[in-house]
Amino acid sequence: MSSLPHARISNIDASEVLAMDGVIDILMADEEFTFPAPQESILTNEPMFVGRPILAVSAVDETTAADAIERIRFDFEPLPFTV
């Protein structure tokens, strides 16, 4: 999930996570099925609010998925935003 109110994801490093026991796969915004307008995708590479989903982790259980999410490294490019 995004930790910034508006940003562009420049890099996602999930190599450590994909090697973890119990992690099945990771789904990123570029790989997600796109919906016709006016619906928008669930995942994004340009989050517009804190907490917007960036990727999804599939694992054998919730604890493994939560541990995996904590180990993923993101490079964010902060973008302007208004309140």
How would you characterize this protein structure?
The protein is α+β, with helices and mostly antiparallel strands. It has one domain (7-78): Aldehyde Oxidoreductase, domain 3, CATH 3.90.1170. It is 17% helix and 29% strand. It is built from two helices and four strands, in the order βαββαβ. It has helices at 15-18, 62-71, and strands spanning 7-13, 23-28, 55-59, 73-78. The strands form two sheets. A two-stranded antiparallel ribbon has the order 1-4. A two-stranded antiparallel sheet has the order 2-3.
Sequence of secondary-structure elements: EHEEHE
CATH topology: Aldehyde Oxidoreductase, domain 3
What is the number of E strands?
4
- Terminal residue distance: 20 Å
Strand order of the largest sheet: 1-4
The profile of the biggest β sheet is: 2 strands, antiparallel
C-alpha geometry: globular
Helix content: 10-25%
Note poorly predicted spans.
none
Q: Please identify which CATH superfamily we are dealing with.
A: Aldehyde oxidase/xanthine dehydrogenase, a/b hammerhead
The secondary-structure class comes to: alpha+beta
**How many helices in DSSP terms?**
2
CATH architectural designation: Alpha-Beta Complex
Number of structural units classed as domains: 1
Average pLDDT, to the nearest integer?
91
CATH class: Alpha Beta
Please report which band the strand proportion falls in: under 5%, 5-15%, 15-25%, 25-35%, 35-45% or over 45%. 25-35%
Radius of gyration: 14 Å
